[in-house]
Design goal:
The protein contains four helices and seven strands. It has one domain. The protein has about 170 residues and is of the alpha+beta class. The longest helix has 17 residues. The chain is elongated and about 85 Å long. Helix content is about 25%, strand content about 35%. The structure holds zinc ion. Zinc ion binds next to loops.
């Protein structure tokens, strides 16, 4: 995972204060994660790390775009995303139910930010992708509408069936 190496920050060597790391990536980043739900991903991850004597505060800003299929017409659409999150890394042993708090005991000396960036990206992917009104593939929409009308025509009309029943 050579590509991931640059994400591994040996935090013990950092001076107290603020540090900024900026990573710009395409979808090769996801090779390590078997992630292929969306395509053509491009993102910039800005990692703001504030180191103090007892903890570090991580502010992660993730911006970019990816390609997904429209749920209405099936054509590609480009989805922008922007996500900002904060994590606390506390030095020492401990446990927390709060998933924004991570404890780093004495044996730890580096953090792989790729994993955090990956998680934030996954939560940035919206569940439903639909073109803006008017941007859908009109040919496809027309065909879907035609099929829908045909379906209704083929459906038996319960009222009509009832009348037929009475006639018998
Ligand atoms: Zn569409």
């Amino acid at each position: 995972m050579d590509n991931q190496k640059k994400y591994v920050i040996p935090f013990t060597g950092l001076k107290e204060g603020k540090h900024v790391f900026v990573f710009t990536e395409n979808e090769e980043f996801f090779d390590a994660y078997n992630y292929d739900y969306v395509e053509n991903v491009k993102f910039t991850a800005t990692v703001n790390l504030h180191k103090m004597s007892t903890m570090m505060i991580l502010d992660l800003i993730l911006t970019g775009h990816y390609t997904a299929q429209c749920d209405r017409c099936g054509d590609d659409l480009i989805q922008d995303f922007e996500n900002e999150d904060r994590l606390f890394f506390k030095f020492g042993e401990g446990e927390s139910d709060d998933e924004t708090i991570v404890f780093l005991d004495q044996s730890e000396y580096e953090i792989n930010f790729a994993d955090y960036i990956y998680e934030y990206f996954v939560t940035s992917v919206v569940l439903s992708h639909i073109h803006q009104e008017g941007d859908c593939n009109k040919e496809v929409l027309k065909r879907i509408e035609e099929l829908r009308v045909k379906d209704i025509e083929n459906e038996s009309n319960p009222m009509w069936d009832k009348l037929k029943g009475l006639k018998k």
